[in-house]
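Example record

One chain of 132 residues, shown exactly as stored in the release files.
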Amino acid sequence: MLEVTCAVILDGTKILAVQRGPESSHPWKWEFPGGKINPEETGAECVVREVEEELGLQIEVLSQMEYIDYEYEIERIRLIPFVCNISSGEISLNEHVAKRWFCFVEWELIDWQEADRELILKNRARLKKMTM
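Predicted structure tokens for this chain:
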């Protein structure tokens, strides 16, 4: 199983989503930024590194939410979410084609990558409470 982190980045009552490009393994799908955990790092270290690489942002990890296990056709992943705030930087899309700040009530209007959608469903109550 591949362990992957993602950042649920908050700005007041809004959450950040980013869109994958046409050449990615999940073309045009939206997701929370993040990536694979390297052997020498913790999940929190991974999400900080990945967000800096993908978005040019420095983030502060506030807490960890419940993970999900999800099986795609070619691999099984454990998606580990971290609630984060931006500590510095401006968003620069280095690996994605678009960004979107959304209110939690809008989450179902977004064409999520499957694992991210399941993650939202599992953590729905907490996400809703955090963004009220």
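Notes: The helical segments are 43-55, 114-122, 124-130.
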